[in-house]
Amino acid sequence: MPKKNLNGIIVSDKMEKTAVVLVERIKKHSRYLKRYRTHKKYLVENPEGQYRTGDKVIIEECRPMSKLKRWRIVRKIS
Prior knowledge:
Blueprint: E1 5-12, E2 18-28, E3 35-45, E4 56-61, E5 71-77
Parallel strand pairs: 3-5
Antiparallel strand pairs: 1-2, 1-4, 2-3, 4-5
């Protein structure tokens, strides 16, 4: 089974080896069919601290690294 990939923006890198990535999606209301934006924040592995706040990145699902961390950064989007 392939791993899930998501695109997002780093909103915080203040923790050691961890970054917070905001992923925004567009959903469609089931009854009124209007499109609206939703967002969710993910804690991701950032081991060397090479990615900074404001970077657009691709994150990938991985094994649990801590209580809330289950994603890692694959690469930066330019």
